[in-house]
C-alpha cells in the first residue's frame, strides 16, 4: 500500500471510511463489516475513519474489537461535534445539533474511548463546528486531551480556511477532512493552499462522489429499494439531478476504460494525484469494493490522464448540492 503521512505518522494513501457499515447505505451487516475491517488491515489499509455520530456510537463499537486485536496496525480516527438526541440512531434524526463546546469535547472523547475500548485515539476531529463557540476554546479543550494522552493528533472537518488558521494558532492541526472528488472541488478554491501553507494533510472523504463515480448507480428507485439515504437525503441523487450527474460519471467511465481501470479507481487515483499531502478514505462495507479501491493506490496517472478526468466533470456541470439544506447549514464555519 502506498504510504503518506499525517503529522509524521505513516498512513495508507487510501484509507477506509467506516460510516456506511452502520448507517445510511442500507442494512448493517456487522459480520461482513468485521471481515472487511480485517481484510483492510491485511492489505495495509491502516487508516480507519469513524465518528461518534455514525449509528449513534454503533460504528465505534463495531470497530472496537478489531482495533483492540490489531492495535499496532491501526491509525484510528474518530470525531465529535454532531450531537444526537437521546435514543436517536442516526444524524438525520430531528433534534440533532452541533456542539463544539469545550465540555462536550472532553465528554465525547471519554465516551468514544469507552466504546472503542482503547486508551488513545490517533486522530481526533471536530466533526462540525458551532460558530457560536470560538474555535480557540474548542481546540484548547482538544489540546488538553492531547496533553492527557487520550489523543495523539487533532483534526477539523468541513471548516473554513479562516477557522483552520485560528485553530492551528492554538495547537497544531494534523489533518482537515473535507469532501473532495471529481464531483466536489471546492477545496481547490482556498483550503488546499492553506493546508499546504500550514503543513496540514487533507483527508478526502466521499472521493468517489458517494458512489456516483463507481458505475453502480442506475437510478433513484434502485437506492430507495435498498434503503439508501441518498434516495431522499442527497440532492445529487434526486430524480431531477441524477440524469445529469450520471452522464458526467459516464464520461469518467470512458476515460477509465482507456486507462484500463474501473471508474472508481480512476476517481481515487485522480484524488491522490492532487498531491502527496492528500489521502483518501473511500467508504465501503463489501470486500470486493474494498479490494477494488485499494488497488487504485497502485495506479499512477499521467498528467494527460489527470487533465482528461478533470475535464470530464466540469465544476459547474454537477447538478445538486452536496447535502440537503439542513445539513449544509453545518459546513464551512
Automatic annotation (TrEMBL):
InterPro entries (UniProt xref): Aldo-Keto_reductase, NAD(P)_OxRdtase_dom_sf, NADP_OxRdtase_dom
PROSITE patterns per UniProt: PROKAR_LIPOPROTEIN
Signal peptide: 1-24
Record flagged with keyword Translocase: no
Record keywords: Oxidoreductase, Signal
Gene3D superfamilies: NADP-dependent oxidoreductase domain
Gene Ontology terms for molecular function: oxidoreductase activity
Segments forming domain NADP-dependent oxidoreductase: 13-312
Pfam name, any one: Aldo_ket_red
Annotated GO CC locations: cytoplasm
Protein name (database record): Oxidoreductase
Organism in which the protein naturally occurs: Phytohabitans houttuyneae
